[in-house]
Amino acid sequence: MTTPLWELVNICKAFPGVRANDGISIRLNAGEIHALLGENGCGKSTLIKILSGVHQPDNGEIRLNGVPLTLGSPIDARTKGVATVFQEFSLAPTLSVAENIFLGRYPRRGPFVDWARMQAEAERILASLEIRIDPRRLVGSLSVAEQQLVEIAKAISVEATLLILDEPTTALGAHEILVLHNLLRRMKSRGVAVLYISHRLDEVVELVDTATILKDGRVASTAEATRLDIPSIVTAMIGTSVDEHYPKEQNATNEVLIEVEGLWSAAGARGASFSVQRGEVFGLGGVIGSGRTEIARAVFGADKITGGRVRVAGRKLRLRSPRDAIAAGIALVPENRKFDGLFFNFNGGPNITSAAIGSIRRLFLLNKSEEARITTNYIRDLEISPAAATKFVNLLSGGNQQKIVIARWLFAQSQVLILDEPTQGIDIGAKIAVYRLINQLTARGCAVILISSDHAELIAMSDRIGIVRGGAVVETRPASQITHAHLVQASASAATAA
Amino acid sequence: MTQPSAFKRLAGQEFFGPFLALLIISLFVALTTPSFLDPQNFRNIALQVSILSIVAIGSTIVIITGGIDLSPGSMIAFLTMCLAVFIKNQGMDLGPAIALTLLIGCALGIGNGILVAYVGIPAFIVTLAGLSAFKGLALTLNGGTPAFSLSEQLGQVFYGTFLGLPLPFFYVIGSYLLFMVIMEHTRLGREIYAVGGNENAARLSGINVARVRLIAFSFAGACAAFGAVLLAARLNSGSPNYGANIELQAIAAAVVGGASLAGGRGRVVSSLIGSLIIVVVQNGLNLNAVTTSMQSLTIGLIILIAVGLDVWRARLGRGLARLTGQRTA
Q1: Which residue numbers delimit the ABC transporter domain (chain A) (predicted)?
Q2: I need a labelling partner for B149 at 20 to 30 A (CA). Which of A172, A278, B133, B208 fits?
Q3: What is the CA radius of gyration of chain B?
Q4: Option in B186, B194, B328 nearest A365 (CB)
Q5: pLDDT tens figures, A129-181
Q6: Strands A330-333 and B165-166
């Protein structure tokens, strides 16, 4: 076997509570477009960040032409020939296209910027990519698709031997995708190694030469083994041992607890309707950006509601703020627990009691010994690390943090729990603990609304699933009638339609 | 597990660092300046610290919510003038005049709070505007000139004694006890810390964030008003120039005492220690006939050092946590 241009050997990288990359090896050949596939949280992003110098691997080697090297920082990686186009744009909106392309390395004449040369160079680069954008325009005035093209132009304006693109087509229309693909084929013919990440399997099989599939931080299918057709890719992404760790209990009753009717919100719920019974888990499936989180926030009163109705136990609610929702027994475990969930200036106790602090008062004073007792109980029942009682919650693992946020709503005695990506970024043991908690809640007669991008989890833990597209529930089916492939395909078609 | 010793428990408290700093600074001043230990000087320090430490309570609470209050200095100027006008020009009795002054202080604080919490203007801007506007209001009263010799009895409010101890001692102890209980042992206090710690999470926990911010500013107004009454009583006068720069000293006291300007961290009792540090340093410089300009410079340096230590300590803490693997506990 010939030496590949770039090679990753046995890359390992762990974060608190999760092994993001666990012995990943990939060979990237010159003149080859290589797809990196896998579900959310499979370790793709971490691997890209290691290759582009953002993270350092705990273990393993990166080799260029067979010679091991270190990519100590993004600048270091760039000078060694790795160009990366990240999902999040790194453009300065108030600068021109040309300035953005040459950001940090403006051409100079003596001490001054050589504007004429910068302009001419930018025009040359854009023309070579067949991108028709005036380099004098401000980036902020461009459409998202145009910005994406500028981002790519910026990345390849410096000689690169490895070009990494992370979901480059999410914002692009059909024609722009065609332009991009042609561009990538030209890069390939110039002998560049291209690493291409996308959720859109239809365009992946169209474009790439080979594909590596990751699952749970490991290689699930090597480039040699992967067959480039959608069904086999989906199978490899799902894995073989899907439902063994889902301890699903059937607790659904016939009594409807929450009814959402034509709910609109300023933030992006667009006529969402569904109902959930006591003891039932209602899953919301759909791609990122389909409006699942927006529907959840509207039901919780966190975003301004512009139309529609929410009823809990037959009573119509007036949801002006989360306070109203909490009073009606609704709870939200937010997608981003660091940003929206936890108080890092508190230890576990006050984090647990924050939504029902009024119930541990003795006259005007907080009953702190009662709070400590409650905390101890939740630590025991939910198997939270005992450190939670005394340490600030930023010192706890993601799984422990998530349990604390869930404990908050157990303590508030909520009846309807909305769990938005409750197992994101936590390890498998903590995930199973969260599933058991869901069972406990439904056994108690609570209704659970589960949002998850982990399709296997969504199918296994839900009783019924609603597919969300454009801020509304477009299709509802029993979970038993929905397959993983169905969800992936529904997501793909949603993306194509967008 | 063994019970931690009393010393270890004390050392674990957030205010232990500032307390240690206060002891070291006092020791240094005492060794270099013998007149520091003079009982009369102690009395001076106590009187001086009483007003600052009460104003600093309000500043600390606003800082804990993640805000900042630049207005107490000018508010105090305006309120001493109000009190002077009530007593001298309107001929009001002392009690009602003081009560009305305190009420106006609360109202101004509420005004700040409404603009910050409900209108949504950043606290820095609102209170910077207040810094200018309240000074302007003070100058509209009594033709913009100070009013002296307000009342025979007013001085007693500050210089009077109870059980042989000066009254300001009781004001300070009383205010601190009240606000320590509010901040540490009530739902409101918990909500103030929650809003400062993570506003999003507070809102999603059903806390009325705007109301909490409003209350914090009204506390700041009340504390400034109390300080204004004490200052007017101490000097038996009102002046548009009183209170100048006290807002910076109060913020410094809070920060030196360990409050984080990012919000969510800090203790009310620490601002008393912070106030003492600032007053002791000033006193030491005074006793050594250091010029006012050098004093300002020194206070500036103290703030930088205190915040620098805080940043450094946070970094050190993270490093230690990594080493001992506490993060994934």
Answers
A1: 6-241, 247-495
A2: B133
A3: 20
A4: B186
A5: 778 889 999 988 887 778 878 888 888 788 889 999 988 876 666 677 787 88
A6: unpaired
